[in-house]
Design goal:
Blueprint lengths: L1 H20 L6 E12 L3 E12 L4 E9 H6 E8 L8 E5 L6 E12 L4 E11 L2 E3 L3 E2 L6 E7 L8 E10 L4 E4 L14 E4 L2 E10 L5 H7 L2 E7 L5 E13 L4 E12 L3 E2 L5 H9 L11 E5 L4 E7 L8 E3 L14 E5 L10 E11 L4 E4 L4 E7 L8 E10 L5 E6 L6 E7 L8 E11 L6 E7 L2 H39 L1
Bound molecules: 2-acetamido-2-deoxy-beta-D-glucopyranose (5 copies).
Main location: endoplasmic reticulum
Subunit structure: Component of the oligosaccharyltransferase (OST) complex.
InterPro entries: Ribophorin_I
Length: about 500
């Protein structure tokens, strides 16, 4: 074991040596790197465009380097050729020994020849990357957050010019870091602010920066402090159960949710009067959540919204008509959820939201393979919120076999088990997926396929018939018994 790891580190050292000695034979150079960071609440969207130029023939692997903090905070990542919607394959190629950065190899699909140029767009979503500052706010105060990132986008290749723009959704940028020791890359001011945007750079003629030397010498954290006008929301826990029933052709989806307002803690007590006055003048505190809206599928029925006290009747639902599967019209139903009390910073809110939908809207039968296929979304997009812990269970019809699924991204864990409910004879197969740190980008469907043998279709009616027969017999017996008792008791009285 020890020898093996020694061997590996020898190889790494050799590779590192090869990499540094061949600095002049880099396969690419970057004409420009532009990083745009949309400062948010619990989600921060980052778009980085690499304008690259091939320096050799037939090169097809471009390496993107992320810093350690970035990779730990990144929950979703995709690389596209600019203007295309076809994500490229990325291979994680690890962190060079002793370094504080991670390499991702992007497969360009079409090899480039020397002189050819291409624009690659790296899109990431960071979670839990901001924090409220100050940590407490009174009901009538503003909310402000801090966000930290690294000054330079790293790259193993030389870069002619790079800049980073941080954009806040509201104009109040309270403070930002002025970087040190960047005279080598710019003669101008190293940072400028214009309205709600702070720009670091342009920085010129940056050598290969994915090296420990560059990091030690030039890399530095930059921190922004900005006002944020919306509540910072986290879903601490989402448990979704999707139950497929062929009997009744129904798909029931139920979400059990613990929502958390991760904004500044409320200073002092909550005053409903103050809240109402503020809302009346349209100046509701940004760190108070009075209501929120989610988009549900079209054509849903029997929607229920329950909290720990019971049915919450202060909600509004506008159901969009059910549309034919595969149709391009994807208008959703809109549900406005209004909790019984506004949710203040630091508070949790636990509720259940469920609905029925016609199975035909998301499922179909393939007569060639003899299998049913049903699509179930991993989650319903929760605007601006991260989902810390999610568990999705798909409960298949009783007796289903040959269970298979296609998932849009890997789960932390998944397994197939059996779920037994009332009127079930042999239980239903259940597929469970667990996830952490889901974002709006993860609200995608899982496709489950399965076979239901004819005997399984009959099992339910048989079970119901048996139960009914038993009830009927029991009722008859009970009635006789009851009558007898009744008679005897009246006689005695
Ligand atoms: C990259 O930049 C370094 C220093 O600025 C230079 O020595 C080297 O030749 C450059 N490499 C390429 C491939 O342009
Ligand atoms: C995200 O980044 C911030 C700032 O760099 C850091 O304090 C925090 O611990 C990171 N979160 C995770 C999960 O690594
Ligand atoms: C629950 O509240 C909704 C309004 O959101 C109402 O339409 C429905 O009838 C209520 N259900 C029950 C069982 O009270
Ligand atoms: C919110 O829920 C989390 C996890 O269940 C718990 O750790 C935390 O103490 C709760 N916060 C409040 C204010 O109840
Ligand atoms: C999810 O985020 C939390 C908090 O930022 C972090 O500690 C954890 O490592 C992340 N988990 C995964 C699997 O990304």
């Amino acid at each position: 074991m020890l020898r093996l790891s020694n061997a590996i580190s020898c190889v790494l050292v050799a590779l590192a040596a090869a990499a540094s000695s061949s600095a002049s034979s880099q396969p690419f150079e970057n004409s420009a790197i532009v990083r745009t960071i949309d400062l948010g609440g619990s989600l921060v969207h980052v778009t980085t465009t690499f304008a690259l130029k091939a320096l050799k023939d037939a090169v097809n692997v471009y390496t993107i380097t992320l810093t350690e903090e970035e990779i730990f905070n990144t929950s979703w990542l995709e690389v596209n050729v600019k203007g295309k919607q076809h994500p490229l394959t990325i291979t994680y190629s690890g962190a060079p020994a002793g370094s504080k950065f991670h390499n991702l190899d992007v497969n360009l699909e079409t090899p480039l020849d020397a002189g050819a140029t291409l624009n690659l767009v790296l899109e990431t979503v960071q979670t839990h990357a901001t924090w409220p500052w100050p940590k407490e706010a009174a009901q009538d105060e503003k909310q402000s957050l801090k966000y930290e990132t690294s000054l330079f986008v790293l790259s193993p290749y030389n870069t002619s010019v790079q800049r980073t723009k941080l954009k806040s959704s509201s104009p109040g940028i309270l403070s930002y870091t002025t970087p040190d020791n960047v005279q080598a890359f710019t003669l101008e001011s190293p940072v400028t602010k214009s309205g709600a945007t702070v720009t670091y750079g342009p920085y010129n003629n940056i050598p290969s920066s994915a090296t420990p030397e560059f990091l030690a010498r030039y890399q530095q954290p930059v921190v922004l402090h900005y006002n944020y006008d919306y509540p910072v929301l986290e879903v601490l826990s989402l448990k979704r159960a999707a139950e497929i029933s062929h009997w009744g052709a129904n798909l029931n989806i139920q979400d059990d949710i613990v929502l958390h307002n991760a904004g500044p803690q409320l200073k002092g007590h909550f005053s409903r009067l103050q809240h109402q006055t503020q809302s009346f003048y349209g100046r509701g505190a940004p760190h108070v959540l009075p209501l929120f809206t989610v988009q549900l599928p079209p054509g849903i029925r029997n929607t229920y919204y329950i909290d720990q006290i019971g049915n919450v009747s202060t909600s509004r639902l506008r159901v969009a008509p059910s549309v034919a599967r595969g149709s391009k019209n994807t208008q959703n139903s809109i549900m406005e959820l209004k909790p019984r009390y506004p949710i203040m910073g630091g508070w949790n809110y636990t509720y259940t939201l469920g609905w029925d939908a016609s199975l035909g809207d998301s499922g179909s039968y393939n007569s060639k393979t003899g299998k049913y296929i049903v699509s179930v979304p991993v989650m319903t997009e929760f605007p601006g919120a991260v989902v810390n812990d999610a568990e999705l269970s798909i409960i298949l019809p009783e007796g289903a076999t040959d269970v298979d699924y296609v998932a849009p991204f890997p789960a932390l864990s998944n397994d197939v088990s059996t779920h037994v409910t009332y009127l079930d004879t042999i239980g239903r197969p259940m597929v469970t997926f667990k996830y952490k740190n889901l974002t709006n980008k993860h609200a995608k469907p899982i496709y489950v396929s399965y076979r239901v043998p004819i005997t399984a279709h009959l099992r339910k009616p048989m079970a119901v018939a048996t139960v009914l027969l038993t009830l009927f017999t029991f009722a008859m017996v009970a009635r006789r018994v009851d009558l007898t008792i009744h008679k005897t008791s009246t006689k005695k009285m």
